[in-house]
Specification:
By secondary structure, this protein is α+β, with helices and mostly antiparallel strands. It contains eleven helices and twelve strands. Helix 1 crosses helix 9 and helix 6 runs antiparallel to helix 7.
Length: 369
């Protein structure tokens, strides 16, 4: 993996052009950094050993609480078939989506970049020609094929093999050619929000109550209000009052709220945000290429709204609780999921790769469909 590149906080006079580039960088960096608005569901990170995936000490279970709902129509997992490893397809080629570039954003539940599950998983898709920026989110418990493990929850790929294995899991299951990855941990979210002076969000009574009871964000009520960093993190962790799908929606709302707040920052605040952003991020992308990407995204966002797409939603998947897997989200059909995602991007004449077809068939067999 490439080393993180910190930005030195040097005060010096800059030209208007340089200032605009910095503002573009930091405003859009919220699309990359604020994805840390993920749910921190564990207090103890999972271990990783060495550079090669080692699954022997990874516990992929995440049992549902007694008051959480299980879909009665959820299929049953064939444990033996789930652990079977697929033969690689040597001539498999990922589909290149014409006009689009895709980047994987990972929010990790540990305090560093070498441990923990990636409990936020978002694909940032950029199309300069069509002036579109889309964020495609996926529930952390989505049941997918992970090389070397067999079927597992997608958030476990990072715990077992880092960003490289997480990227491979996304590419193989969703036929998405990932250009680069960006990894952040939960520490950056409160810092960014507080530096921006807080962000405005609208809470339901149930959300406000749960944020206090569960995450010590006391004194909040339903309605539109300004939240500090600790409160925004609590908001983004809320799941048990409804579902993981709704939690993804909260993440997106918080991301946009932070984005709007950052756009109003002063220059000195941007310098401080740059320090936080680059210290809290881990990526395999060169800084020069990142600046180009972020400026492109900012240019698009100046004329178009950021789109929120859902790779896996409640209309096309089922939630269940099975053995060592704990809570998992099962897509009704993998190929249909991938095709719907391409349709949302406006891609015509898409043909799934051989690997996606292979995984889809094995998934159906594993789930008895």
């Amino acid at each position: 993996m490439a080393e993180k590149t910190p930005v030195k906080n040097k005060r010096k006079k800059v030209s208007n052009k340089s200032r605009n580039i910095l503002i573009a960088l930091l405003a859009v960096l919220l699309v990359l950094i604020a994805i840390v608005v993920f749910i921190l569901t564990r207090t103890k990170p999972d271990p990783r050993s060495g550079q090669d995936p080692d699954f022997s000490n990874i516990d992929f279970s995440d049992d549902l609480d007694e008051d959480e709902t299980i879909d009665p129509e959820a299929p049953t997992v064939d444990m033996e078939k789930a652990e079977q490893l697929l033969d690689p397809i040597e001539d498999n080629e990922l589909t290149k989506d014409e006009g689009w570039l895709h980047y994987l954003l990972l929010g990790v539940d540990g305090t560093n970049y070498k441990s923990g599950r990636s409990d936020a998983l978002i694909v940032l898709s950029v199309n300069k020609e069509e002036q579109r920026v889309a964020l495609s989110s996926i529930p952390r418990d989505t049941f997918v094929y992970v090389e070397g493990k067999g079927f597992s929850k997608i958030n476990g790929a990072y715990a077992a093999g880092g960003a490289d294995l997480a990227v491979k899991a996304f590419e193989e299951n969703f036929d998405i050619d990932i250009e680069n990855y960006f990894v952040v941990n939960f520490d950056s979210l409160p810092k960014i929000v507080d530096l921006a002076g807080g962000v405005t969000l609208t809470l339901t009574d149930a959300e406000a109550q749960h944020m206090g009871d569960q995450y010590a964000a006391w004194g909040l009520e339903g309605g539109t209000q300004k939240l500090n960093g600790k409160e925004v993190l609590a908001y983004c962790r809320v799941r048990k009052i409804d579902s993981d799908y709704k939690r993804n929606d909260r993440q997106f709302k918080a991301l946009l709220a932070i984005y709007e707040a950052v756009k109003k920052m002063s220059y000195d605040q941007y310098v401080g945000l740059a320090k936080i952003a680059f210290d809290e991020m881990y990526t395999d992308m060169m800084v020069g290429n990142m600046l180009v990407l972020l400026k492109d995204v900012m240019d698009i966002c100046s004329v178009s709204e950021i789109e929120h797409l859902k790779l896996v939603d409640s209309d096309h998947s089922r939630a269940g609780n099975f053995g060592k897997y704990g809570s998992i989200v099962m897509m009704d059909n993998l190929i249909d999921t991938v095709v719907r995602w391409r349709e949302a991007l406006g891609i015509e004449d898409y043909t799934p790769s051989k690997r996606v077809e292979q995984i889809s068939k094995h998934m159906d067999d594993t789930l008895g469909r």
